[in-house]
Amino acid sequence: MISKVPSNREDVSCVSVCPRREEVLPKLHSDADYPCDLVGNWNTWYGEQDQAVHLWRFSGGYPALMDCMNKLKQNKEYLDFRKERSRMLLSRRNQLLLEFSFWNEPLPRQGPNIYELRTYKLKARGLSGGAKGFFF
């Protein structure tokens, strides 16, 4: 069952960087004015090579996400960083994720760790009593 509390939204950023410049890691902000936390960041070993994955949590749902995006548009240091980063990228994509009430909240961990990233396609289904649910 999907959580009815719209408290958090996760944003996954996947970037593929040029191998010759992968030593330049992104500067991750920790400014308290931004309503987001870095939950984790990884480099891939299998699948798409030279890919970095960053998992951000926006506490406060969509309003917090929009607040952060608007602040970043005004942040000169961040805009300069994006310009420099664009010279290293082969591709980039973002995903917004919703929490499920039956899975634990992702928490930062001390590493090194190995993770498997999975994607599920959900389909709506009817349950008895008029309730709706999802299955994989």
TrEMBL record:
InterPro entries: Dimeric_a/b-barrel, NipSnap_domain. It comes from the Eukaryota. GO terms for cellular component: mitochondrion. GO terms for biological process: sensory perception of pain. This is Nipsnap homolog 1. It comes from Calidris pygmaea (Spoon-billed sandpiper).
